[in-house]
Amino acid sequence: MAPAEARAARVAADPRSAREVDGGRGLRRTDVLVAVATAVVSLGLLLGLPFLDAVDPDTLGHPLSAPEVGSADWAATALGLLVQSAVLLAARRAPRTVVLAVAAVPVLLVAVTSGGDLFGLTALPVVVAVVLAGVRVPLTVLWPSVVGAAALVSAGTAGNWIRLNGALSDRSLADALVDALPQGVTQAVGAVGLPLVVALVVRSRREVRAARDAEVAARTAEASAAVREQDARVDAAVSRERAAMARELHDIAAHHLSGIALMSAVIDRQIDTDPTAAHEGVRQVREQSTAVLEDLRRLVGLLRDDAPAERAVETVAGIVDLAERARYRSDVRLEVLRGAHEVAEGVGPLAQLAAYRTAQEALANAALHAPGAVVTVTLDDRAADHLELRVENTAPPAPGTADAPGDPTPGSTAAGGNGLRGMRERADLVGASLQTGPTASGGWVVTLRLGRETPEVAR
Question: Burial level of 450, CB count in 10 A (0-12/13-18/19+)?
């Protein structure tokens, strides 16, 4: 695959690669511009300083000592500046090596030229190299190169000072080096030390900015995670509320509407043969319809913040009235076995509501699936640690609409088995034990056992 095709494939796979490639080109152009600018400034000073000194000579110090333009020394100095500038092109790939190489060129120039005041121009590429390396490489890694560059700059400057002042003509090499050393140290501080300080300041500011950006990114990610977690909690809460609403609506519809349907069928048969009983059945249908409206109104009131519920939440004590009302459509017998304490004492309100809804659903299922069967509701409140509700019906005298009350098989009822599912969900919600199933005599039994929050001491 050709390079252009490979790049196109990378860009197609990841659009960010295009920005990375373009960014790399921009950085390389910056390196070239830095090297060219350094060369232009250095050569411009090499050409311009002698002219400026001739136009306005220095009357306080010695005249400017510079090689003649076009001479061998001038050409060597210009070539050295160009070499230093060219070496800067590698400052990104090998910054430590570049620092040493740029600082070594002045030492070579001292060896091949006669020196002069323009020798100090060789310090400009050194300054640029130190700054580039300082902003890219940690000082803990860069310091050997910095020390070496400072030593080379000091050596080159000292050698140029000795050549320029002819120090070896009247004194020994050791004495000449002692006199030239301050000049070399000063030049090293100016060409290496000060630029390094500037580079370290720039680098520290970059690191602080990067740390701040990373912290902001971390906080943003944390905030996003918190928002997602909150959204998940809200969704879970909404799902639970929807499930609770579905249970309530099913309980209301299954209990009352199934009774209305059964009584309507009876009224249809009695309206001609027994008008008195038919009228009584119509009154029962009206009572059931009113109860449906009241339950729906109460449910809507619970869902609305600005409308309080019109009726309190049902309790275990309400099962007695529930059984009394169910006698209009089935042969319901109620048995309450009480202990020495109050009815349902120690059973929480949510558990009592679960018991009420379980009894309601069981009675509705018995009337729908086992018409004519005897239904026995037993409320056993004698145990010290639990309350037990038992709803059992005998086998129906005639086949019902399903094999067993609350049969969860699809198509058995309009609810599709939601009755038993709702019972189990309510029991699990309050930590109760629910058992359902057929009896040996062909009937059906639902048993709910509720634990007490504050058990009574057994007597």
Answer: buried
- What is the model's pLDDT at position 253? 63
Amino acid (1-letter code) at residue 122: T
Give the residues of the chain that fall short of pLDDT 50: 1-5, 7-26, 309-310, 400-416, 457-459
- Edge-to-edge strand ranges of the sheet holding 374-381: 331-338, 374-381, 386-393, 444-451, 433-438
Question: What letter does residue 88 receive in the DSSP assignment?
Answer: G
Question: Can you give the pLDDT at residue 77?
Answer: 86
CA angle 295, 301, 303 (to 5 degrees): 110
Crossing angle for the helix pair 16-55 and 123-136, nearest 10 degrees?
Answer: 160
Tell me if 184 sits within 8 A of 157, measured CB to CB: yes
Cβ atoms of 347 and 316 within 8 Å: the answer is yes
SS3 68: coil
pLDDT value for 403: 41
Task: Answer whether 110's CB lies under 8 Å from 163's CB.
Answer: yes
Residues 310, 300: Cα–Cα separation, whole Å = 10
Tell me whether strands 386-393 and 444-451 are parallel, antiparallel or unpaired: antiparallel
Q: Hey, what amino acid is at 244?
A: A
Task: Decide if 319 contacts 389 (C-beta within 8 A).
Answer: yes
Specify the pLDDT at position 317.
Answer: 87
Distances 170 to 42, 110, 166, 167, 175 between C-alpha atoms, Å:
34, 20, 8, 6, 10
The residues that bridge with 381 in the sheet, in sequence order, are: 338
Q: Are 183 and 157 within 8 A, CB to CB?
A: yes
Residues 6+ apart with CB under 8 A from 217: none
Separation between Cα atoms, residue 105 and residue 229, nearest integer Å = 63
By CB atoms closer than 10 A (0-12, 13-18, 19+), residue 5 is exposed
The model carries a pTM of 0.47
Decide the pairing of beta strands 331-338 and 374-381.
Answer: parallel
Contacts of residue 271, defined as CB under 8 A and 6 or more positions apart, other chains included, come to: 278
Q: Are 258 and 363 in contact (CB under 8 A)?
A: no
pLDDT tens digits, 331-352:
899 999 988 888 888 888 878 8
3-state DSSP call for residue 333? strand
Q: What is the pLDDT of residue 448?
A: 94
Task: Tell me the Ramachandran region of residue 305: left when phi exceeds 0, alpha when psi lies from -120 to 50, beta otherwise.
Answer: alpha
How far is Cα 422 from Cα 356, in angstroms, rounded to an integer?
Answer: 13
Q: Select from 382, 378, 313 the least CA-distant residue to 342.
A: 382
Contact between 52 and 63 (Cβ < 8 Å):
no
